[in-house]
Amino acid sequence: xxxxxxxxxxxxxxxxxxxxxxxxxxxxxxxxxxxxxxxxxxxxxxxxxxxxxxxxxxxxxxxxxxxxxxxxxxxxxxxxxxxxxxxxxxxxxxxxxxxxxxxxxxxxxxxxxxxxxxxxxxxxxxxxxxxxxxxxxxxxxxxxxxxxxxxxxxxxxxxxxxxxxxxxxxxxxxxxxxxxxxxxxxxxxxxxxxxxxxxxxxxxxxxxxxxxxxxxxxxxxxxxxxxxxxxxxxxxxxxxxxxxxxxxxxxxxxxxxxxxxxxxxxxxxxxxxxxxxxxxxxxxxxxxxxxxxxxxxxxxxxxxxxxxxxxxxxxxxxxxxxxxxxxxxxxxxxxxxxxxxxxxxxxxxxxxxxxxxxxxxxxxxxxxxxxxxxxxx
Length: 377
Hints:
Elements: H1 3-39, H2 43-53, H3 57-74, H4 76-85, H5 87-106, H6 113-143, E1 147-149, E2 155-157, H7 161-164, H8 167-191, H9 196-224, E3 226-232, E4 246-251, H10 256-260, H11 266-284, H12 287-309, E5 312-314, E6 324-325, H13 333-360, H14 367-372
Helix pairs in contact: 1-2, 1-3, 1-6, 1-8, 1-12, 1-13, 3-4, 3-13, 5-6, 6-8, 8-9, 8-12, 9-11, 11-12
């Protein structure tokens, strides 16, 4: 295989790995925030929930940074088009991500119940909204985003924020939220202690079957909608850009990659396996295995979406032939080689220190220590 082609496919896979890491690690923290007011009935219970993820939540943000950095480095045209066209969505995501660390840091600084309740609601909103946006963003890729380019490759977004909240995107957003709530509930089962464990178990027990139903409904929706087909692209050795290709729409074509390569059906099977096995493990109280089952579910769901969309990264609903693909919005071979070298060093390093932090900080949080410490959340 030609080196440049290999690097393009490799970075599509790396992007998928980073999106999975973001969903699993950041989604877990977001799930705790979403559940905070429901599983914590007293102030000390809510503080226990926050301190359950306290050693990890800020370190987990690196997955969010890595995801954006990978798009910037490997797919700069995708980065520019998405961040300019979806500006309101990005600002909404940014605002919620700013409020969230403030909630962690400032909530317990004052003893006022009103003060703490305000930050509890802020943590709920800043936990639920980003996960809904995350899922809705992936859902809109299947429907196409209303953008196009002019002759000198300036992009124009012709939609609105409301158009992005279509029924299918909302369904995908709820799927993302349900998996986040599941991961947050499992985390609290193993770390918060007390009566929070039972409430978190009930939340996770509801979230897992909800994810199964939403994933199934999303699959039916994808099978019924028109998929994008790359009919013609520039020849090999010629500069690839969205102005020199032909894309058409065909009913049910989003499943074409699975039909052409039946082995890929293992990805949605992994999604279902993770959700159903996770549901059974939560009911059995097997917290660690339930967490890994949730991670498996995320990998299956994101992998299914990525394979269905391939080679498209950001289809255009305004002009399908100007859709962004793995082939036409990628960096140069030299850039990809340098990026691969950095990724080969830093991604394993991040996996190592994350695993080390979870191992060192394992066990149930000590509520007496929380109440006596000035540094506890």
